[in-house]
Amino acid sequence: MRFLPFRLKVLGAFLTLLTAVLVSSLVLVDRSQTRQTKTEIRRQLEVARNVFTSLLRRRDLELNRSLSLLAKDHAFKQALATENMDTIVSTLQSLKSRVMADAIWITDDEGEVKESTLEEPFEARLSDLPIVESALDEHPASAVLRLAGVPYQLTAVPVLAPDVIGVLIAGFKINDAVALEIKTITRSEVSFENDGKIFASTLSDEAHKKALESDLASISDTDPTVIRIGTRRNLVLRAPVAQGVAAYLERSWDEAIEPLEKLRRLVFFVGLVGFLLTALVGLFVAGSVTAPVAELVAATKKLSEGDLDTAVDIRQNDELGQLGKAFNDMAGGLREKERFRSVLNKAVSKEIAEELLKKGMIELGGEERRVTVLFSDIRSFTTLSENLSPQELITQLNAYFKRMGAAIQRERGVIDKYIGDAIMALWGAPVSAPDDA
Q1: Contacts of 50 (CB under 8 A, 6+ apart)
Q2: Phi and psi at residue 207, in whole multiples of 5°?
Q3: What one-character-per-residue DSSP string does 357-421 give?
Q4: What pLDDT score was predicted for residue 363?
Q5: Which pLDDT score is estimated for 188?
Q6: Domain boundaries, the chain
Q7: Phi and psi angles of residue 397, each rounded to the nearest 5 degrees, phi first
């Protein structure tokens, strides 16, 4: 990471932050929507279970009311007392058609079946049923019971004259028709199970039924359970009906979360667009930051190589602009210092010039120093100069001053002035040394 260009680091920071925000948003939205969807399906399945319970209760009330009216009918009681079977059978068939029951029975005062609406003989012994025993004790009763292995919703009421002379029993089979009726109302798939086997269902797919049967033990009656049917997923809620009998209400989980899948795709698309836009904006921002930095780096390199005329052109009104101005001021200061150095080098040695430059600001007003002063001139210069032309004279003086100046600078002296053919040099000022004398 440390070897990456600064521009990529800035862009990476932008994109990392955006990715973190997008992923967090997607996860939070996904969890929230998934939880909300599951809660809604749970509510719908619980409503379906309540509808199923209400349907059983409504049927029970209808049967109880119809049977009670018939049990109080004087003509029916007279027919039962006189064992007028033709009248009894006709009355039972009429009641069956009216209440749309699957079967109606009439027993004697001991609970033994005297007549029923069934065309085939019924082998189950009704007198042993709890609801029949309750009716014989003059208490109407209802229950979901299995008769000959078939679950029935049964209602039993006593026939009194004034003592119990028989029991009227009517019931509905719990079958595909009941499941379909519940599905029509609740829009949920409905299956009935008896001892681990599905005996009635709105499901037409046998593979679906087998998958449901294999998961029956794991399905709760308090919280919907997810089951898999191939690649599909359903949420199932159990509704106990009677001992060994239960209803299972299903809704498709995949259909329920389809809007969530669309939302996921939308969030992903928006996130992708945002990612690309952020990448473009990040490149622009990173460029606006790194371009001046790169210009400063290049200018600094030139400056370190001795190019004191280097300058940067950063026109931003921010910290980078201030940095560029400071760089140009620094380069200007170095140029000025170099000009001073060039001037000093002409008068003093390089070492003395360096020492003077290191001192920085020099205060005016003079100072007291112990110095050694050298005055030197050319012997008989006047006589010599009379025999030389001006050009020859200047040439001789320049050669003399050059050799004398080199000797003085070699000994760390400072040439104070030239007076004709004379030289005045100092040791101990402006820079002193132990061997100045």
Answers
A1: none
A2: -65, -35
A3: HHH----SS------EEEEE--TTHHHHHHTS-HHHHHHHHHHHHHHHHHHHHHTT-EEEEEETT
A4: 60
A5: 85
A6: 72-172, 370-427
A7: -65, -45
Q: How far apart are CA 393 and CA 15, in angstroms?
A: 79
- Give dist(CA 145, CA 162) in Å, integer: 29
Q: What is the pLDDT of residues 80-105, one digit of tens each?
A: 888 888 888 888 888 888 888 888 88
Encoding tokens for residue 224? 């919907």
Residue 429's closest CA among 361, 343, 356, 375? 356
Q: d(Cα 84, Cα 197) in Å, to the nearest integer?
A: 42
Cβ–Cβ < 8 Å for 227, 219:
yes
Judge whether 260 and 253 are in contact, CB under 8 Å: no
Residue that is written with structure tokens 């619980």 in the block: 46
Sign of CA dihedral 386, 390, 396, 401: positive
The span from the CA of 418 to the CA of 342, in Å, is: 19
The list of the chain residues with pLDDT below 70 reads 1-7, 10, 121-124, 286, 340-341, 343-366, 437
Q: How far apart are CA 361 and CA 169, in angstroms?
A: 123
Q: Which fold has domain 72-172?
A: Beta-Lactamase (3.30.450)
Cα 387 to chain center, whole Å? Answer: 103
First to last CA, the chain: 62
The tokens 């930051």 sit on which residue? 289
Place of tokens 């070492």: 351
pLDDT of residue 157: 93
Among 134, 146, 144, CA closest to 242: 144
DSSP 251-296: EEHHHHTHHHHHHHHHHHHHHHHHHHHHHHHHHHHHHHHHHHHHHH
Q: Length of the chain in residues, anyone? A: 437
Residue for token pair 């012994």:
125
